[in-house]
Every structure is written in structure tokens, then in C-alpha cells.
Amino acid sequence: MTERVWHDVDDYINGLVIDRDDALDRVLASTVQAGLPEINVAPNQGKFLNLIARIHGARKILEIGTLAGYSTIWLARALPADGRLITLEADPHHADVASQNIAAAGLADRVEVRVGKALDTLPALESEGPFDLFFIDADKVNNPAYFRWAVDHSRPGSVIIVDNVVRGGLVLDAGSSDPSVIGTRELGALIAKESRVSATMVQTVGGKGYDGFALALVTG
Ligand code: SAH
Ligand code: DHB
Ligand code: MG
User: Can you spell out the DSSP letters for 186-218?
Assistant: First the structure.
């Protein structure tokens, strides 16, 4: 099995379960047009996030890593009318593109984009918690800090999802000097010893290559 097959199967799956969608098409077009990296979650993964949020009945969501707002829109669409999503983005240009896309999707009333490095903007969110769902998808080096913050600002029943925990298998390299890999491995160790969560990790292949996500349920 090759990456070509993963890609074609993703196209097949997306053809089956993903409706045509002007707002999401706009996000992907703006990503290319504005020169942003095409590292948004895949359509079927975006819908997975949307379904998790709906299954969970999430009313308050925190996302770390907005890019052009692709995963943001999938998640925000799961919210009830009085629900709220805050998304943190370090790059002002990304945040600007995302804000326009979120407004065009009709979600500006529910979504707030906060600009700045997440470690700097998280402290101002102290009093906004607890959040029902977290989607952590920014700089991987800070994943341990983001995960810790999420657990500390959750309630029993909160869900934490972390993207990109496999990185094509690089996560296996215990001697890696790549800060992203080190951060990812530290996250794994943290999840393993964190008694307040029950967690798993799932490998994924598809149009976005070979990676995986962590899913944690806060239990206490
Ligand atoms: N969740 C998005 C993809 C996010 S890509 C989607 O699936 O559609 C990662 C984003 O995190 C990039 O836009 C990058 O600028 C941002 N980022 C990187 N370091 C960050 C930091 N320290 N704080 C907040 N955002 C950061
Ligand atoms: C990268 C970041 C992501 O969040 C992702 O899903 C894929 C790739 C990256 O930084 O290369
Ligand atoms: Mg990601």
C-alpha cells in the first residue's frame, strides 16, 4: 500500500461523506491564495472533529492553532447557537485570513480568534474555563504545556484532542533532536502518567500523509 492509495481512498471517502460546502472551499482556496501552508486537517478529519463535538454536546471549545480556520469552522458548526469557540493563533496574517473565513461561514457570533503565541494568550483565558472540548494543533514543541493547561481548565467529561502525534513514525525516535518530536514524545509520556485522563492514540493515513491523533477524556 502506498501513499497514492491512501490519497485515493481519502478522495473516495470524502466523496461519500462530505457535502459540497462553499465556506470550507473558500477556506482551502484562501489558504493557497494567501500563501499559507496546506496543513489543515483533511475533510474527513474535520468532520470527525465535528461529530465528536456533537456527540459530546460541546458548548465551549478551545482550539490552539487556527491557520485559515478550516478545523475551526468544522468545530464551530457543532456548537449550539449560544455556544462559543475561542481559537488561538500566533501569526497575525493567518488570524486575519481565518477571521474573514469564519465571518464568511456565518460563525463570527460564536467564534473568537485571539492573536499571539498561545503560551502568552492562554493566561487571559483562566476565567473562561472549564472548556468542554480542546483541539490542540499548533507548535508541537509546546504540546506538553498545552495539554497540561487543557487538563487544568477542564471538568470531568471534557475531551482533549491533539493532532499530529505520529508524524510519519518520527515519534519512535527517542534520540531525536527535533523539538517537535521531543515535544510529541513528552506529550505521550505526560498522557501516560496523567491520572486525571483516560486516553488513546490512533494512527491515520490519508490525503495528508501518515500521522495520528490523541484523544483524552478527563475523568477526574
Ligand atoms: N487547526 C488548523 C491547522 C493549524 S496549523 C486546521 O486544521 O485547519 C498550525 C497553526 O498553529 C499555524 O497557523 C501556526 O501559525 C500556529 N501556531 C504556531 N505556533 C503557535 C503558537 N505558539 N501559538 C499559537 N499558534 C501557533
Ligand atoms: C504540520 C502541522 C500540522 O498541524 C499538521 O496537521 C501537519 C503538518 C507541520 O507543521 O508541518
Ligand atoms: Mg495538525
Answer: HHHHHHHH-TTEEEEEEEEEETTEEEEEEEEEE
